[in-house]
# Entry
Amino acid sequence: MNVRNNLVQAESTTTGGAFPAVRLRRLRRTSTLRRMVEETRLSVDDFIYPLFVVHGQQVRREVPSMPGVFQLSVDEVAREVETISELGIPAVILFGVPAHKDPIGQENFDPEGIIPQAIRAIKRVTPELVVITDICMCEYTDHGHCGIIRDGEVVNDETLEIYGRVAVAHATAGADMVAPSGMMDGQVQAIRQALDAAGFSHIPIMAYAAKYASGFYGPFRDAAESPPQFGDRRGYQMPPANVREALREVALDIQEGADIVMVKPALAYLDVIRAVRERFPVPVAAYNVSGEYAMVKAAAQKGWLDERTIVLETLTAMKRAGADLILTYFAKEAARWLNER
Ligand code: PBG
# Structure
């Protein structure tokens, strides 16, 4: 009885009443009523669509573990961005697969590399589309790690110099924003300084700030051809058990000049998104990663889940948790569903 009284009391102090006067189902009765009191609204403006760019012509190769996601050659990217733009998606993030891999990933900072080519092609077709580039080394290095290797270890400070060169190469080709994802300490500061020194002080940085060492990146590594050839990434990406450490990562990245901070992956880390949103005033992005996409696609293909319901529900959850922006392979489908609503 006491417990019940306390609950009734708590409800009356927060909402000013209790059953039978209060009936929460009243505002759920019709779809219009539900629409009027919806607290979180997903929008196409929230989306950033990832693209995988490869060498060649008329290449449109589906990633086996990511149905509906393709490795595209530059000419195909130029066609794809027209659709993306027509759907109202404001931004893309580019990942490049180089022609050759080597220990330091030379093509990554080559002004004629795959990403600069793609940026220029996109800007010719859809100049208003925001082009973000991922700054990392794993797709370009023969060892598949996100930095330079010395004595079997990924060395931090020498790697920073390369990141700076990559960022400048992308900005020179016309990138609107860069997104360092390698999880080296000091990477935001190094890139900020390199960009500023090259005359790109107006180019924002979206920092992969709290990026966890996650099993959910598996399908991406097929798409970007970037799995580590030895060991794993736990020496630089974050341990999944930690949230206080994520707040330190975010605080440091903001101090170093990050304009947007990202939490990655999204679905298993909604509490981290919420914690970051509550403590920091900067825009927060969430990466709905490849493994999250693959799980939903696989279950939907088997008829075990309804894809549209699940996608809109999970993307809404990311936004409710506090994400302003969502990087998602579902962006095109979700945009179509939202436009229909
Ligand atoms: C590169 C990078 C990765 C992802 C984005 N940038 C892979 C990794 O860290 O191994 C993963 C994205 C996804 O899974 O969708 N460092």
The chain has a mean pLDDT of 95.
